[in-house]
Amino acid sequence: MSQAKTALITGITGQDGGYLAELLLRRGYMVHGMIRATTDVERSRLFSVLEQTPDYAARVDLHVAELTDFSSLAVMLDESAPDEVYHLAGQSYVQHSFELPEYTAETTGLGTLRLLELVRRRAPAPTFYQASTSEMFGESSAPIQSESTVLAPVSPYAAAKLYAYSLVRAYRRAYCLHASNGILFNHESPWRGADYVTQKIARAAAEIAAGRRSELVLGNLDARRDWGFAGDYVEAMYLMVQAAGSGDYVVATGESHSVREFCELAFAHVGLDYRPYVRQDPRFFRPTDINETRGDATKAREQLGWTPKVSFNELIVMMVDSQVERLAQDSEHSGASRPSATAQ
Length: 344
Known about the structure:
Layout: E1 6-10, H1 15-26, E2 30-35, H2 45-52, E3 60-64, H3 70-80, E4 84-87, H4 94-99, H5 101-121, E5 127-133, H6 156-175, E6 179-184, E7 187-188, H7 197-209, E8 216-218, E9 224-225, E10 228-229, H8 230-242, E11 248-251, E12 257-258, H9 259-269, E13 278-280, H10 298-304, H11 312-334
Parallel strand pairs: 1-2, 1-4, 2-3, 4-5, 5-6, 6-11, 7-10, 8-13
Antiparallel strand pairs: 9-12
Helix pairs in contact: 1-2, 1-8, 3-5, 5-6, 7-9, 7-11, 9-11
């Protein structure tokens, strides 16, 4: 019997990290994950996966490290000795990057440099996946974005991601690394962070329907995004790492929907018209924003055999149902429902 492969996932307690860890564990991998000293593992999807399948726990090992600290990353690589590295960690909020531009550059940009330096020094070097983003395209003039579309970031987050993307391409060429960039468009799930607009909407729809709150305040309702399901997108990451050669791949659904549409469908799922409850406030507009993203995943489909499975409507239903279930569980634990403050 061949020895099980070993994978290292940075950002393992995030949305994508949890879905990816589950995929790899199902395939028999030993999985190592990078966490920070302050990470609350019990609130992560990874913890949920291990609770549901306790047998997986014996094949998961967590390492405390920081993208800003080369020595901690080096120890982690030595201890895990991975065959594959999936680099998902970093400051990932666009809005926060305007407030914390230097920290974003340090973690998302230079953190990738530190990791690549360690990877290329190992013999043999593990295969490497870098989580890139459609935010790198900026306000593109192209109606649909592909691997050949010009990259013109308009936020500190996107600029840091472009630096990391460029490093992967440079190291791939200079050191013959099997290193790929996944240019992922927006991807959501019930485990999406609470600060993301899709999760804000799903939570508000459930809470307003339950009488827990009265309104939701958002920024630009007409911004359009290509939204997919995170569980589908981690399969694309896996396929990139397994491919005979490395490259850069757009991962997207090819559809574009507005924040307003997301609100309409989410509230309709709980029997409400969103319009009396959702208010737009210019204070929540970003200093610079992208009007629309829509990705062309032809290369991923033709070269990796990847296609998304979960539709936009199914994704919204999944997220809202998860929030409805959360409220029901909260009520069972508390014995009574209590009003909550308006979330923004």
